[in-house]
Write a structure and sequence with these properties.
six-stranded antiparallel sheet, five-stranded antiparallel sheet, disordered N terminus
């Protein structure tokens, strides 16, 4: 009831009272009997004092001694007090006084006193035992509440004043002051969440209220947090049967709620993934019965999940060997994955629900739990379109190879046909040039000298282009042959430099050769000249107006040729492709050429077992380095 002493306070008061009465069950038997002697003697003294006034009832005060002795010590002290009281009353107050002689008319009084005293002792012992049992039960209940891992609190009265709060509840609320305060005072953060209204309803109606995963703000008021709770508001009936309080019992389930919601989110995501997946997905149990399939699998097989659920997948979705004969279960790769507990991959032919055949690529992955497999996850992908694409790819590859072969044949034929008229034209121009040089002052020399020089350069350029096409044709068709002989790389370099003097003068470039002496090896002389020609042509083209440096040396068993210009350089983005066919490091609008020179150079050097590399910094020139083994090993 409202205003009643709190449970803990009452427990403390009862314990104190027990001590005040003499220690109860904790006193020794000797002290209990001594107490009986003491109260009996006190009753005797009072009786002596009051004897002149209460002679008719000499046993009256001794009843009080018996009551106190029995209440304090039980049967032994109570009977001791009753016996002593009977002797004292008979000796001191019954006639003849001061003599142990009992008259017949007093014997009934003494017997009645002893009988009533025995009943009083029995009632006291029974009452005290019941009270002790009740107190023990109360103590056990209090201990249970205090040690329970649940949230337990007791509210009293219509204001729901805290009477009890166990440690779990107190810790949940941050150790704030609770006892003696109403719930609205102690937990103002619950305002507007409906909990106060629920407590009012339980108190007024007497009907319990159950809450599941209710959201509440708890914790230290200065650092509140949010949690989820399962709870019961249980009415506590008073003496009149109507509720005079509410007991709160609950558990915090925040971790479980968050874990379940996280699992639900994961399941929803997985469901979305499997539903939208383009792969056909199946899940089977350890008996190979279908338990799940996504829409892609339904579309792929023609069956629905309802048609296959709980049925052996092998019996419903038949798959065959490439020749069309069915697989026995013992040879089924999907069954093998379950038996061996290892993933199986492969290609197969399945039979659609309508009877049609379709090829698939499959992956069967066992679901492992402990030492065994509890099921399978099967992925199916229809490879019909893949096979069509592969067939189309192979057809296009054949056509491309034919086109490349025809192109190479055309280049070879066209190059030979172009080379045929260029040779006599070049000879005629050389003859005309000699005639002009023989008579430098003649009208013919004055009139045609510059035109002949220009025509000679154009014919040489056209011849170089034709030779480039021929080289590409030979390389791609595998017809480029090497004629190996003893060659001095230093000598070849000097000869090529001599031929390039006119072009170098025209480009205003000085050709600087640095060599340590003869460097001889087994190489193809004409191909070496072609490599030098290509590298020098590039150096003069892109380094016009600045010197070109050449260096020839021998390092152990390898020859090394370096050609360096000081021109525009090569952009880093172009470095990886300048040795490819028809690739250029600069714009073709500013520099001519087909982009074949470096490609042919690398192929020639590679055919002789060597390497060619390039290094460059934009606006600071480029350096090409050729390394050749002294004994060339022709490569196919």
């Amino acid at each position: 009831m409202e205003g009643e002493v709190p449970l803990e306070s009452r427990h403390r008061a009862d314990t104190t009272g027990e001590s005040r009465l003499g220690g109860g069950r904790n006193n020794s038997s000797l002290m209990s009997h001594g107490f009986a002697l003491l109260v009996t003697a006190a009753a005797l003294l009072v009786q002596f004092t009051l004897y002149p006034y209460v002679r008719a009832t000499p046993f009256l005060l001794f009843f009080g001694a018996v009551i106190l002795s029995a209440w304090n010590g039980g049967w032994g002290p109570g009977l001791l007090s009753a016996g002593l009281s009977a002797l004292a009353a008979s000796y001191f107050f019954l006639l003849p006084r001061f003599a142990f002689s009992v008259r017949p008319e007093d014997l009934l009084s003494i017997s009645l006193f002893l009988a009533i005293s025995t009943l009083i002792i029995r009632l006291n012992v029974h009452t005290r035992t019941a009270q002790a049992d009740a107190e023990a039960q109360r103590e056990r209940l209090h201990t249970l509440f205090m040690r329970a891992p649940a949230i337990i609190a007791i509210h009293r009265g219509p204001e729901h004043v805290f009477e009890f709060s166990n440690p779990v509840h107190a810790q949940l609320l941050g150790g704030r002051e609770l006892l003696g305060r109403s719930v609205r005072q102690a937990q103002p953060e619950l305002e507007g969440q409906g909990f106060f209204e629920l407590l009012d309803r339980v108190y007024q109606t007497g009907e319990p209220v159950y809450g599941k995963e209710a959201l509440a703000h708890v914790g230290d008021p200065s650092h509140p947090r949010t949690g989820y709770f399962n709870f019961v508001y249980q009415p506590m009936p008073g003496r009149d049967g109507r509720p005079d309080g509410v007991m709160v019992f609950g558990f915090e389930v925040t971790e479980q709620v968050l874990a379940r919601r996280g699992l639900e989110r994961t399941e929803r995501r997985l469901a979305t993934i499997t539903h939208n997946a383009t792969l056909g997905l199946f899940m089977m149990d350890d008996r190979q019965h279908c338990v799940f399939m996504n829409p892609a699998a339904e579309q792929l097989t023609g069956f629905t999940l309802e048609e296959l659920r709980g049925r052996p997948l092998h019996d419903c979705i038949h798959h065959t060997r490439p020749d069309g004969t069915p697989y026995p279960l013992s040879e089924c790769p999907i069954d093998r994955a379950l038996a061996t507990r290892s993933q199986e991959r492969g290609h197969d032919v399945f039979v659609h629900k309508d009877g049609g055949f379709y090829p698939v690529a499959f992956t069967a992955s066992p679901i492992l739990e402990g030492d065994g497999a509890t099921g399978l996850v099967i992925e199916l992908r229809d490879t019909t379109e893949d096979q069509r694409t592969q067939a189309e790819r192979e057809r296009l590859l054949v056509e491309l190879q034919d086109a490349v072969r025809l192109r190479d044949e055309f280049l070879s034929v066209a190059s030979h046909e172009l080379k045929t008229p260029l040779t006599p034209l070049s000879l005629r121009l050389q003859g005309l040039e000699r005639s002009i040089r023989a008579e430098p002052g003649s009208p013919l020399a004055v009139r045609l000298g510059k035109e002949v020089e220009m025509m000679r350069r154009q014919v040489k350029r056209l011849s170089d282009l034709v030779n480039g096409f021929l080289d590409v044709s030979r390389i791609t068709t595998g017809r480029m042959k090497l004629l190996l002989e003893e060659v001095d790389l230093t000598e070849v370099t000097r000869e090529v430099l001599a031929r390039f003097q006119p072009e170098a003068q025209h480009a205003r470039c000085a050709l600087v050769l640095d060599t340590e002496g003869p460097v001889s090896g087994q190489w193809d002389r004409l191909r070496l000249e072609q490599v030098l020609t290509n590298l020098l042509s590039n150096a003069l083209k892109y380094g016009a107006g600045k010197p070109v440096h050449l260096h020839v040396e021998q390092r152990e068993d390898r020859a090394r040729l370096v050609v360096r210009d000081e021109g525009i350089g090569i952009h880093p983005e172009a470095m990886g492709r300048i040795f490819n066919r028809f690739e250029r490091g600069v714009s073709e609008r500013h520099y001519g050429g087909l982009g074949l020179g470096l490609y042919v150079t690398r192929q020639i050097i590679s055919a002789m077992g060597g390497t060619v590399t390039a290094e460059s910094t934009p606006a600071q020139g480029a350096t090409f380095t050729v390394e050749l083994p002294l004994q060339a090993v022709p490569r196919p």
